[in-house]
Amino acid sequence: MIKVAGIDVGNDSVKVVVDGSPRPILIPCIVSPGYDRHVLQEEDSPLKALDVQIRSPKLKRNNQRYFVGLLAMEDQDNSELEETDNKATSDQSLVVALTALAYAAIAGQSYPAASGLEEAEYIIGTGLPVRTFVAFQHVFEERLVGEHEVAFLSTPELRGRTVRVIIRRAVVSVEGAAALYHLATNEQLQVKNDEIHNGCIGICEIGALTTDFPVVKRMNIDNQFSTGEQFGLAGYLDSIIRDVEDQYGYHFPSRAKLIGRIRNREFTVQRVGEGKADIRPIVDMYFSRAAQKLVDLIRKRWRKYPDIECFYVLGGGASALRSYMLEASGGIRLRFEDDSEMLNVHGYLKLAKSKTGQAPAQS
Ligand SMILES: Nc1ncnc2c1ncn2[C@@H]1O[C@H](COP(=O)(O)OP(=O)(O)OP(=O)(O)O)[C@@H](O)[C@H]1O
Ligand SMILES: [Mg+2]
């Protein structure tokens, strides 16, 4: 049976929602080279120890072993993506995406009676930033569509299982605009918010490495006014990591580790030789700077295109910067949503359903 899924191949994390299953899956987009690791105590969930070998004709380095997500987060040889990476062509993005789709297909299911290769067939919806969309949508689609193989090695519960991930179709949409589509429609893809559906809406979708500014008018993307910027929250996180290291000698092994702390509002770090340090002032300084820059960009765009009726600030960066942006916004009203890093992926699933005729009949 072919599953329809939305997959947001994010620079910070890959998110997957499979049609009909309630819980989205999120895997940090970090990988490190895999090896036979010593397992003193098995992790309590597969997501904590994704250890995979991936075979795909679309990878530049085929048939390699990787630690993916949480397992790679502490590794000193781990890699997170940089500004120069392009998710449409990056091996790392594809490795995490395929791992996520393979995991989504077999998680929580017992080993099939006839052992051997398990198959997972998908139609997927996904997306690219405004500025890469035109040049790379077909490249991205071609990279995803086809047959790939993911073998789970030391992963608890999934050890020894191999999944053939077959992607039949990939519908590529525009980041940010997909999030808005999700906000405008219900699960049956009917309009649930007239204001968004019929209005002219500005969006500022803050990702890890890109920030997209699509303008959507009556649910159509405005070709002339939609743009994007090649920066996101990651650059600011890198600066915070560097300053904390310089000032307190404390090293965060990855951006993911830092954002985990910020999310839980744990701002004290342990110093070598006892004592603790408060990193809050450093975080505040960089986040206020980021917020000011984004509010200025929004103001500029709104002046250029005064037909915009309201502005939504979305993406994971919006969750991180919400209070700072509200403070910087002056007289401008900005709209935020909860769980804003998950809006695109829900939008991708809906767009895939609507474009491939998998949608329930509209009344
Ligand atoms: N709830 C949250 N609170 C604080 N920060 C968050 C939250 N969710 C995500 N972030 C951070 O916001 C940034 C953007 O997250 P998001 O998931 O939107 O990025 P992405 O989609 O993976 O990246 P890109 O859009 O550049 O491909 C990341 O640095 C992430 O760590
Ligand atoms: Mg994103």
UniProtKB/TrEMBL annotation:
| Stretches assigned to the Actin homologue MreB-like C-terminal domain | 205-323
Q: Which CDD domains is this protein grouped with?
A: ASKHA_NBD_ParM_Alp7A-like
Q: Where is the Actin-like protein N-terminal domain?
A: 6-176
Q: Which domain of life is it from?
A: Bacteria
Pfam families named in the record: ALP_N (PF17989), MreB-like_C (PF21522)
Q: Which Gene3D superfamilies match?
A: 3.30.420.40
Record-linked SUPFAM superfamilies: Actin-like ATPase domain
InterPro entries named among the record's database cross-references:
ALP_N (IPR040607), ATPase_NBD (IPR043129), MreB-like_C (IPR049067)
Protein name, entry field? Plasmid segregation protein ParM
